[in-house]
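User: I'm writing a short report section on ligand binding and want a predicted complex to refer to. Could you take this sequence and zinc ion and write out the structure as tokens? A short remark afterwards would be nice.
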Amino acid sequence: TTPQNAAEDGFVHVRGAREHNLKNVSLDIPRGQLVVFTGVSGSGKSSLAFGTLYAEAQRRYLESVSPYARRLFHQMPVPEVDTIEGLPPAVALQQQRGTPTARSSVGSVSTLSNSLRMLYSRAGDYPAGQELLYAESFSPNTPQGACPRCSGMGRVFEVTEQSMVPDDSLTIRERAIAAWPPAWHGQNLRDVLVTLGYDVDTPWRDLPKKDRDWILYTEESPSVPVYGGLTPAETRAALKRKDTPSYQGTFTGVRRYVMQTFANTESASMKKRVARYMVSTACPECEGKRLRRESLSVTFAGMDIAELSRLPLARLAELLAPYTHATSKVEKGLHAEQLIVRRRIADDLSARIEVLLALGLGYLALDRSTPSLSPGELQRLRLATQVRSSLFGVVYVLDEPSAGLHPADAEALLDALAQLKAAGNSLFVVEHALDVIRQADWIVDVGPLAGERGGQVLYSGVPDGLRDVEASQTRRYLFGEAALAPRTPREPTGWLKLEGVRRNNLQDLAVAFPLGVLTSVTGVSGSGKSSLVSQVLVELVGAALGQGSAVAEEQSDEPDLERDEALPLEGRIVAGMESVRRLVRVDQKPIGRTPRSNLATYTGLFDQVRKLFAATPDAKKRRFDAGRFSFNVAKGRCEHCAGEGFVMVELLFLPSVYAPCPTCDGARYNAQTLEVTYRGKNIAEVLGMTVGEAITFFKDEALVERSLEVLNEVGLDYLRLGQPATELSGGEAQRIKLASELQRATRGNALYVLDEPTTGLHPVDADRLMVQLNRLVDAGNTVIVVEHTMRVVAGSDWVIDVGPGAGDLGGNIVVAGPPQDVARNKKSRTAQYLKPHLV
Ligand code: ADP
Ligand code: ADP
Ligand code: ZN
Ligand code: ZN
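Assistant: Sure. The structure tokens for the complex follow:
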């Protein structure tokens, strides 16, 4: 067919797609329909939907823009595919990998804040005599709007005695002043204090306040002789004798050191280090509202714009209703023009908020920062924005839109997708939730397995036809053959009881988590599950164990200032703590943000592999130790890319991209290192193996094999050992963390907390994960998951249903008990979805 004909037959024709693991696949996909891509994790769904279809649409669009733009984009990957015909322009609504760093909010992503600013500018109530302000004056990100004291941040960063001297029982010599620079520079400052006559051998808290204040806050910088290595008494004597000093040392007050280093250093790690000694508090000038006084003096419905932006969207909608066209009445003292403007903006805002409410996001406020949203919430927010933006003839490519959604919320999502379709668009959706798959007009099932053993299109057609496709894993779940076996829930061995819990929408809640069993916490999006489990429970148990925040590995290099002050921890553990020895939180945060961390390094597997290489006769002859085989050490790595295998390419106007290193071709090592082989493979080739391949290769090495087996068991056999952390999805990162935990000897009495562990997992992978979680429970541990997949909930021992609704309408325990009991509860919104999964 010619492209002309192809466009006319209503299908997208893909021929010879070979991106990643795709095996030269050809298929036709209908336009104007809801097309769902299914298949086990790693089978190639994303490679087809995003890597091929979306990438090609994007590339064509950019080519059509201008030769200039094209030049900037010449590094845009060209998907491995022979031809695609009939492809409309595409918009991707992908779940972002990693955390967004931009200072954006619900209001900015949805563009609702723009309209709200217009409303305040044109139709707000101004104090008598104040001139009208432009819309920009209501944005903290413009010079016209930003509070001059905090530059629109809403917070000011300061130091306190407590933040600079966290442990005041220490002496200065014992490094009481933790905020001081490390190593030599810190010692130098201490020696200067000795010369100046300050006591460095008395606990900080026993020093006179005058001395403490001077040391911390002085703006003076006296320069004095320093005698290195002398005691305070010897120093005094040396000063008296006017001995020649080791050098002249200059003092800097601790506060000054911290503030200046933070403001001026170019080193990210220095900045991060000093940031630890600062605290942020609400700006005293704007009270955290981020705007100038004049801007805050303008009100609407009696509130300034910051107050309005803090309301849940559901309340904002109620508040706007009286001002919309349908209900608004002419008021005294209001110009006709003001009235028209007010109605028009209120109408527009109300209509757009309506879509967000329909998608179950009514509990969000406009000023909620996007980094605090779950990826699923962010994706729905973007989706809602699209629903209102009357585009037509576009294909929307979505990545697991049901992630984070209770089945009740998923129904609203399907409505929104239906609206986009009705407006003449196509929907290509990668999805695992059976409720969503069942609504598809067309299914593309990829498989049969992951990685090398996947990459084929097993089926492309209307849903019912999948019934007969033997090789499909999806088929068994979709057509009811893989029903759960009946089981008797395990009996709890004890109870972990919490009382007086307050956080977000939780108000003085009491809750009991059973120990020694698998518990699912359910409830609609925004009901309070994360506040209860991932926040308060984790914080309380962590504090009781002295584990601090207890959140596994934070590997970021960036100072964490965007993070708000820690919320006060309200609640207490009243029973059960004696049976909890360890807290393990397995979240979906990335395991690292550079290609330097990968599967093998994170799990510790790589240490074993390097030892094997160092033990080969060839390595011994060359005197190569295990360090030689590390790409993090100068000895053996390629120096051009410093062992990253990639070099960063800076693009004008765009985020930089990584390209393979031209010297080592991505191998990461120098030539001599690569000459050493273990059973015929060099170290780079081993890193290039998938977990599955490595299991065969390392069959005789018990330690290595054990780590690999665990990765295999959590369904990650398709990942390469050297796969950079930056290429992993949140779900993959979570399973890698789980695998690392599983390979430790299980001593029992640990509490495992997982937030939606089945995100990104095909039902067959979710079943495997359940096997692992059950194994942890059988070994004497407690597992608590926040979960939406009813198959998993049905297979748990205990269910705690939070709700009944979202935000103010939630925050209570609706019912707690074995799955059977919850399924019978009339008030629970989970019951009706759970029931069909119980036999
Ligand atoms: P799915 O979406 O079905 O989970 P993917 O399309 O993401 O699967 O992955 C299919 C295969 O391609 C997997 O073996 C995966 O490891 C590999 N793959 C994915 N992304 C990349 C990449 N950026 N570079 C190399 N291989 C990749
Ligand atoms: P769930 O996990 O059930 O989806 P959450 O515990 O995330 O629910 O949210 C419960 C309520 O608390 C919601 O109204 C939500 O908007 C609010 N909330 C959650 N996190 C924050 C936060 N960081 N700032 C303000 N409100 C929040
Ligand atoms: Zn301010
Ligand atoms: Zn290199």
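A remark for your report: Residues 97-101, 549-564, 651-656 have pLDDT under 50 and may be disordered. The CA atoms of residues 43 and 747 lie 35 Å apart.
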